[in-house]
Amino acid sequence: MLADLVQAYPDIRVTALIRNPAHSSVFKANKNVVDVVEGSFSDIALITSKARDADITFNTGGSDDVELTKAILAGQKLRVTEDLKSPAALVHISGVAVFADGTMDGKHDPEAKVWNVRP
């Protein structure tokens, strides 16, 4: 996804929060495109600060981490209320496992909860 984004928008600047230092080198190799920030979801001040600076925030790693989401939203709010910048976008693309039925063999569990997102 990141490679596609950078290819489509070559002038974009990306800041990536890397939770596993062993993965940093992959991103640091693209230092002209990606600013690497090492940390964790519990680094609330860091996340708030980076979300405040960003036009778009992608959350790809914490669907059920309430404090992480609050930190992102707090940064986006400060961007508007204190920095007087336009609102930022939040794209949340993690959490598919929330809808998993718990099977490990690839077969659907007919007794699992059926999710319906229609209003």
Write the layout of secondary structure elements.
Elements: H1 2-8, E1 14-18, H2 24-28, E2 34-38, H3 44-53, E3 56-59, H4 66-81, E4 89-92
Parallel strand pairs: 1-2, 3-4
Helix pairs in contact: 3-4
Short description:
The chain is of the alpha/beta class and 119 residues long. 32% of the residues lie in helices and 15% in strands. Strands 1-2 form a two-stranded parallel sheet. It has a two-stranded parallel sheet with strand order 3-4.
Helical content, roughly? Answer: 25-40%
Give the uncertain stretches in residue-range form.
none
Total number of helices: 4
Largest sheet: 2 strands, parallel
Note the beta-strand portion. 15-25%
State mean pLDDT (0 to 100 scale).
Answer: 83
Structural class of the helices, strands and pairings? Answer: alpha/beta
* SSE sequence, one letter per element: HEHEHEHE
Strand order of the largest sheet: 1-2
Radius of gyration: 17 Å
Extended strand count: 4
Overall geometric form? globular
Distance separating the two termini: 30 Å
